[in-house]
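ping. complex inputs:
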Amino acid sequence: MGKKDKIAIPKQKTRWNVYFKRYWQLYVMLALPLIYLLVFKYLPMRYIILAFKEYKLNTKLWDMPWANVKGQTDYFKYFKTAFGNVDFRRALWNTLKLNLLDLIAGFPAPIIFALILNELCFKRFKKVVQTIAYMPHFLSWVIIASLVTQLFAPTEGLINMFIAKLGGTPIPFLDVPRNWVATYIGTGVWQNFGWGSIIYLASIASINTELYEAASVDGAGRFKKMWHITLPGIRPTIVVLLIMNLGHIMGGGFERPYAMKNNLVMEAAEVIATFTYKVGIQQLKISLTTAVGLFQSVVGLFFLLTANWISRRLGERGIW
Amino acid sequence: MKKKLLSVLLASAMILSLAACGDKTTSTSSTETGVSNTESSVSEEVKSDEPDARGLLNGKFVDTREISVELYDRNVDGGTEAGDNAWTKWIQEQMLERYNVKVSFVTVARWTEGDDINNLLAAGTAPDICYTYSYPTIQTYANMGGVLDLAPLLEENKDLVPSMFEWLGESLIYQDLDPNAGTLWAIEGKRNETCRINTFVRKDWLDKLGLKEPTNRAEFEAMLVAFKDNAETLLGADAAKMVPFSTSYDIGWRAANLIESFMDPAITDKELYVNGYDDRKFTENGTKEAVRVLNKWYNDGLIWHDFAVYGEGDTTEDDMIKAGFVGAFMHNYDYPFRGGKDSINATLAGLYGEDAKFVAVNCFEDKNGKYTKYRYSESGDRKVFFPATNDEPIASLCYLEFMSDPAVVEFLQTGEEGVIHTIDAATGAVVIQQPDDAHHDWYQNSGKNIDMTINCNGLRLSTEALTNLSLAYSYSDVDPADVQAAIEAAKLDSVVPKTPSVGDIAAETEATDLKGKRDQTFDKAVTAAVADFDSVWDNGMTEYLAAGGKAIADERLSAWEATYGSETMLP
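pong. complex structure:
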């Protein structure tokens, strides 16, 4: 960085022209995703300003008054309201907790699965297993949640009926907060490990096979090869995905907690996404939930940048 | 090289996005103003050549007006398209003929109506006539400038709505008038059937076990125990599926008879109103002890164990009741009769013979030994409001007048003779049946088309006597005698609450998720271990009050005192 770039700058204009003339087809292709980003990611961003305004119906965004308490302008009114709200604080904590557990349980699963698949010699079996493992990814959370209820309901769930038939005591999978969290995390891992492994398998496939041959010659066994060749080979992929996942630590989908929650476990199941829906959409407190959303994004960005910085410090590439 | 190319691309993307961003905003805003300009000029043009200032000649618009009306879509199995069927066409024809007003329907899903209307309002595309059951919701819209003030509109156009004034009366129409601001954001509808909740038991099970219908709580509990102990006799191979008493996550509704029997029978109107924000009696004095009874039943294995796992709209419990595994439940006073061939009683009769049915019983006595229970207030049902985007408020008022016309309501409820109703030869009662396949377009997607008769909930025939006579006959495929018995059970010792008119309560729009907190507390308290019951209930209640419950009660108290002074009962 630094010196080199400074010299390069004056030349950029001509290069840009040259590149554009030579590769214009590629630029045209690039236009499509750029327009997508523009329309769906950048344009809506102007509504962030709602976090600092009083939302009004039938009023243009710029005409809405600034957030105020009895006429006294207070731009951060809704941030204060949010942090003063017990439900929000609980949702914040649950979001962090569930996402962290998801990361701990869910992040290594596809890597391990990819490593195991990679060791399989019988190709057809490998393909079948792979396809079956992908499948849950294509089910919506609404369907998965009803499957979970059918399987894990306190007395009428298939598993508890089975336990009861064998003379055991049914396990409250869904009606005790701690157990619910375990069910929630487990279901998430189940849904995602197959799909998540694709990228690692692709990454493994790109490792030079000569390395394995050389290792075999040197007398390395399966685990040695896995440890010294495969894992280092996919390390950049792992790091990039880890950074991206850390960016989501404050985010997380709406569907999964919303579909899986029930009244007995709300203290563990309310996350920011469901809180935003309940308060913002159902009660039309749009300024408040925009503030929550903005806070969420800023924290997410902070995590992403920190993780990226650490990874670069440790000698990995980072995501840019 | 690569890096530079990338950075150039990113930079250009940024510039492009910013430029386009600016462009887009200005262009949309200019089109927006363009649209509103043309609209206002159009309405001015219309006004220039009209007989009276409102464009009406002999009560009919000279130029065709267009309004849109909200309509619930219940997505009924075997029903018709909610916004396009014989009924909606009939309304459209009639409105065009009477007022020269073109009506279009905007359907919103029944169970997410609140969310849908929120979105429509936020997008500025809400129908001209909206309705919802929750007044605080409308108040929230009004605070955001989203609702038309109906007070001046009614003032100026009272001559257009005589039927509405006759049907609803001054007090109901102006019930939501804010005494301080003078604003009227919504017009309340009227309930013509006020029965609310009944306790139902399986008659054939009682007979099989030689038991009498329970008449007090102890007998009810003994009956549940008997169901449980005799599961083999009653269900044979399915004995493990026995559920003596079933309920849902909505305990406040599904145990209402029990909860209300624990209230003080001498409660004042004032107290009822102050705690009346919650329609599940959550904060009433006796509720905790009532729920303690449920907690005991739950821990004794008398209540469906999995009830709290299923949420709103789930049919698991209904399926269980229809399959015949349930001995007793509390629900809407007519619940086993709803749904024609698919109703609970019709299904049970089909599976286990005519004797298998649920009958209503009274068995929850208050401390005076009466079966006190609360019915719906007559005043106040759905609340109709006009969003601020309504540019045809007068034509919209005409629609409300149309819907208040007794002949219109009667037709919407009972249709043509031979198509969806017949006259019972013996009694002269109007018997409502869903239409046959040839007339399927006349299928009523909501019972008696209540979704269309927006300011009338309940049967309203030409005379009150005929209405009362026909009530029991308005359910197809079930025994009218059972319905009549259920109506009488629901009325016995019942109280029809009065609704005070004290203006807007601001705290009601500020609280967050009180309903959720209430249901969670109910559910957790019922399922708690007996020893934990007190702490679970008290914690839940504390959180509920802190989240806005207390603020609402306090504001209601001072609003009452501001209006009625030291009076504790309504006139």
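DSSP finds 14 helices and two strands in chain A.
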